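Format notes (please read before filing issues)

Several people have asked whether sequences and structure tokens are stored in separate files. They are not. Every record keeps both together, in the order shown below: the sequence lines, then the token lines. Line labels are part of the format and must not be stripped during preprocessing.
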Amino acid sequence: MTLDRITVEPGKMDGQPCIRGMRLTVRRVVEIMADYLDRDEIRADYPDLEDEDIRQALLYAAGAVEDRNEELAEA
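Then the structure lines:
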């Protein structure tokens, strides 16, 4: 898996992983995906953000989460 659009620069955005060197963090892209219901709205508000940027940000975030199964409490 190649994540060539994810960049980390110590002097930019406190070294957080960003999209193609822009001041747009992976975390922000994941938040955008949670907040927006429509990709056309994302494109209107973030015209520099490409579909491949979103895909790689989600892959990067998924890789940062430990994969394990836990029983959830019933409500």
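For reference, the curators noted about this record: The chain has a mean pLDDT of 93. The two ends are 38 Å apart (CA to CA).
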